[in-house]
Amino acid sequence: MFWKKKTKSARQTLQDEIEEHREAIRLSEDFDDAFPDPVGHPEVHKQPVSLEAMDCGHITEVDRKMFDRTATVGRLLNERLSFGGGSWRVIESEVRLADHWSGYSLPGTTGRHYKLFYGKLRSGALVIGQDTSEQYGAGGVHLGLTFLFPFLYDFDAICGMLRTLTWLLSDGKGADMDRRDTALTRELLRTLWGIQRDEMYIFQFHDAGPATVLFKALENKQVKSSAR
Question: How much is the pTM?
Answer without folding.
Answer: 0.85
